[in-house]
Structure formats: C-alpha cells, structure tokens
Write a structure and sequence with these properties.
This protein is α+β, with helices and mostly antiparallel strands. 30% of the residues lie in helices and 30% in strands. It has three domains: 59 residues; 88 residues, Immunoglobulin-like, CATH 2.60.40; 84 residues, Immunoglobulin-like, CATH 2.60.40.
Length: 279
C-alpha cells in the first residue's frame, strides 16, 4: 500500500515538473522582440523620422483636426501592438497616445509615446534652435528633431555649462540632472515647455566622464557616438529581462506550491489509511 502511494506521488510530481518545464521552454523559444520598426500618422511617415530606440515623438496638428490614424509596425510580425489613448477625439492642447508593443512570447513589452498637440502651431513650438555644452562636442551634431545625444567631459567637472535656446522666445527651458556629476555615465534632461504651457519636448544628453569605460557586456570598445544607442538598448533589454523573469519566477513558485499541497494531501491520506489498519 505504502509503495503504491509513494510511486503515485513521485509519478505525479514528475509529470507536474515536466509540464512546468515544457511551458517555460516553449515561452523561451518565442521571439522576445517588443520593438517597432516604423510609425505612420495618417498614412505618412512620422516627422521627425522614426528611430527604433527613440520612444517619444511630438506631433502638431491644426485646431480643425479632431482625429488622427496611427499605424505602428512591429519589428517582429508576430508581436502585438496596442494603441492606448483617444485618437478619434483630440482635445485642444496636449494629447498623449501610448503605443504598447508586446513580443511574441507575451512577456517582453516596450512603449512608445506620441504627444499630439492640437491648436495654434506657433504656440505649441517646443523645439530648441540650438544646444551646446561648453568645451564639449555633442554626438551627433545638434538637430532640433533629434532628442538623444552623448558627450564626453573632463573627469574633474561636477557640472556642465549647457546652453539650450528655444526656437520660440516665449518657450521655457529647464535642465534636470546636471548637478553633481558623480557617475561614470548619467543622463541629463533638457525640458522645453512651449508657450501654450502644455506641449513639452525633452532632449536627452548621456554624459560620460572622459577616460572612463562604460560597462559593455560584449567587450567591444565604446565610443561617444555609440553611447546613445547602447544606453537606450540597455534600458530596453533591462525591461525585457525584468518582464521575462517575473512570470517565470511566479510559475516556479506555483509549481512548488502544488508539490507541497500534493505532499500534504498524500501524508493525510496515508495517516488515515494507517489509522484504519490499526482499527
């Protein structure tokens, strides 16, 4: 009797563990790419031009425009795309639209944001006309439509002299992250708020101390022109790894709980059977 119970228990546990492992392997085999390869607005290419690792865009439409059509094309055709936000009833001012991409494996995700400003185009101008850092060269060269930059600066500096001039004199500029530069590499944000008070565009500068190596898991030489793509890609990979690990941990915990419950039930059954034998 005892041998039968033990045999059944172990067969059941092996089955549960095999099914759980197959589920995990099956999820791992599916593509984990949650990126887009293009975004179109009303059938036309988004302006500024789409870049895979640029996740924020500002689109300006006249006041008479009350709706837009967004086409988001995933990098992997098996990924799913969800557009979050009301594209049919744009309000005057700033409208936030999120494009959420979920990889084929159903785990890895990436969000892109389109900020649609409806109204007076002049009052919603949040572009910079120039961006410079004293004695430091931006990479790439400044372009009002490019929001990601990288620099290398002398190690002894704790603050950079950044000059950010808006195209519209009535727009305001604020700089975040330029105090106490102690990290080997850190991100500085330049936020431009348009005259309308609602349209905000953020430019990013990834500042790296000269002569200091940025951690590169591939072991390749890192130069300032690659920092933007590497940092953005690293953030995306971190999101994917985090989102992938959580469900797998949950599944493992679930399997362990099932094993414990089954063990307890079998012990109870065995104890009852033993008591009956004594009687």
């Amino acid at each position: 009797m005892i041998k039968k119970i033990v045999t059944i228990y172990f067969m059941m546990m092996i089955t549960i563990l095999c099914v759980g492992q197959l589920s995990i392997v099956k999820a791992d085999e599916k593509n984990n790419d949650p990126m887009l390869k293009d975004i179109k607005i009303n059938g036309e290419e988004i302006n500024p031009p789409f870049e895979m690792f640029t996740t924020e865009y500002i689109v300006q439409v006249p006041e008479e425009t009350t709706s837009i059509q967004i086409e988001a094309i995933p990098d992997d055709e098996n990924a799913s795309v969800e557009i979050i936000g009301d594209t049919d009833n744009l309000t005057i001012g700033r409208n936030q639209i999120e494009i959420k991409v979920t990889a084929e494996n159903g785990i890895a995700t990436q969000s892109y944001y389109i900020f649609v400003t409806r109204g007076n185009e002049e009052e919603s101008n949040a572009n910079l006309s120039s961006l410079t850092v004293k004695d430091v060269e931006l990479a790439p060269n400044f372009d009002r439509n490019v929001i990601n930059y990288a620099i290398e600066y002398p190690q002894e500096l704790e603050k950079l002299e950044i000059e950010a001039i808006p195209e519209d004199d009535d727009a305001t500029v604020s700089i975040i992250g330029n105090e106490h530069l102690t990290e080997i590499s850190q991100t500085i944000e330049i936020n431009v708020t348009a005259k309308d008070g609602q349209t905000i565009k953020t430019y990013y500068i990834i500042a790296k101390k000269a002569g200091m190596e940025v951690e590169n898991p591939e072991g390749k030489e890192t130069n300032v022109e690659n920092i933007v793509a590497e940092e953005t890609n690293r953030e995306s990979e971190t999101k994917k790894e985090t989102s992938e690990n959580i469900p797998l941990k949950v599944m493992s915990i679930f399997i362990i709980i099932i094993v414990i419950i089954a063990f307890v039930l079998i012990i109870k059954f065995f104890m009852k059977a033993k008591q009956k034998d004594k009687k």
